[in-house]
Amino acid sequence: MIAIISVTGSVCVMDKNSEKNMAEVKPKKLNIRWMLVFFDMVVFAVCAAVLFFTGGKAEFPYFAAPAFLVLVYIFRFIFKIYSQIWRYGGISSYLKLIISDAFACVCAVILCFFIPGPKYTVAETVSLIGVDLLLLLTARISYGMCYKYSGSDSFVGRVSRFLLGLFGMKEKHVDSADKRTVNIVIVGAGKDGIALSDALAADNSAIYKPVLYVDIKKEKIGRRISDVAIISEEQVTRQMLAAYNVSMFVFALPDMSVEKKKELYEKYREYGCTLKVYEKSSLLTSENTGVVKLREFEIEDLLFRNVRQVADERVVSYYEGKTVLVTGGGGSIGSELCRQIAEMNPRTLVILDIYENSAYDIQQELLQKYKDKFEIKVEIASVCNMDAIEKVFRAYQPQIVLHAAAHKHVPLMEKNCVEAVSNNVFGTYNVVMLSEKYKAEHFIMISTDKAVNPTNVMGATKRVCEMITGCFANHNCGTVYSATRFGNVLGSAGSVIPLFKRQIANGGPVTITDKRINRYFMTIPEASQLVLQSGAMAKNGELFVLDMGQPVKILDLAENMIRLSGYVPYKDIDIVETGLRPGEKLYEELLVKSEELGKTENNLIYIEKDVSLSDAELEEKLAVLRDAVESGSDEEARHALMSVVPTYHTPAEVNGAYDKEKETADK
Fold this sequence. Notes:
Radius of gyration: 33 Å
Helix content: 40-55%
CATH architecture of the largest domain: 3-Layer(aba) Sandwich
Strand content: 15-25%
CATH superfamily of the largest domain: NAD(P)-binding Rossmann-like Domain
CATH topology of the largest domain: Rossmann fold
Distance between the termini: 73 Å
Strand order of the largest sheet: 12-11-10-13-14-15-20-24-23
Shape: elongated
Number of domains: 3
Number of strands: 24
């Protein structure tokens, strides 16, 4: 089996039959540009003649010159120099020409000692082939530049067309008739900014043209990259933007602080320019140039901490080549886990979900991106259906199980307690038992900050799930059990951010349940990365807690989103309190206190000291919950949860204690 990497970077894995089929369609001969071969011969002949007349030789080396010419062309054909399209030639193309002539030069020097009659000295041989190579490189680079500018109506374009016509080359770089050029300023003259500029230059269909770089490093200010000037932030003025006809700023600084992004966003937006962000590794969209994606500047970029890339080689190797099962694989977190696992080259990825549409969507997304690089399987089943789930385990024998399937909507679960317990608690119990029965290497449960001192049914059920995971870790059956707890994720189903966006777009008002509420937020990609890393570092029985940063007041979030959308809070768009929802508390707890938690090698991941239950204790709690589910009474299910989760209290109790604590602190 072999892997073919295409020029676009996609990978296609082929077996022997595929190799055979490829061989059948392989071109039988190279498409050689014989006109270019003749041109290079003329250049070599001129170089040889000039060397003869300036070298003071009495007799022309009739044997040496043709022998050297033959050597040069042997290596050029070996390196397929004349099969390349030089108008698009890049560094690799020029490097191949240099290497081929270097081999020819070495062989020519050796040949000098064996050719009879008049011959070149070693210095003359190197000079002949070296000057010939220099002229050919100059001609090819000049041709590429002339072709690039031949479609322009400027003076440079007219000169380029004249030079191409002088050598009988009629083709020219023709843009689409309706193509417009958008002059952009790239914020950041580092590797990402240069990568963006190079990508745009290499793509003939790109409409974006970099005309300036903005950077903060003094050593770069006043210098140029590919003839594009680098200026400081202080030099960015309306007059300068008008002089360069700039209509867009593109941020190419992935590590820029949120505070700096916000400052520049507000400054550049006042100039009336479009603001976008460069994402080098993103999938293509209709607005992409084919190699880059310029996405809209999102409000989330300005309100929350930077997304930190935490995956390393050890994490990748942990999942690489494994069969991975993701329950709830079509959900917000589950689908992102699937995306990131796909990047790690698993052997098989099994996406399990009860909702077929979302599972189908992530399946098609991954198939389009990875094709047949690895197996992608979709199974539609509920984790509550033990027989259906066991069928999946029996068929795929997963080595790693990521359990993301759960009911997570707090107010809805308050009204559907029986369903919450049945799905979250006993669904998890089913998957945990099957992981042990089918000897999975690792079971990883996705938990939530709402499991800490829960005030709602959803949080209480997830706390029971943590208990189940901890209990099974004591079995020492060969399966590693761990759970990872984190808070709200941006962009998830039911997230407050999309709601606020819709309300602002509709002219308001923006609704919040209580002005005192605060929440932790993390992007889905970062949360998923940390889940996968915590799984890779787990030994057995750990309850990992992710550092979510500082909590955000929902009122501040609403006000900032209104301002960043160009409106004035309470004047253009009002903010209205609607009252706490069922099961909602004023603040969330993650207990990320470094003095109380165990540390890991990643400063974003901690281990909570959790006392695990014995099998008898767990079975006793599950029996209480099982009876409540069988009764069909939501109220009984709620009371059952309160009895088995000692830290479960009503929202009134917790919020009242919080208010008293705040009053005491204020005094």
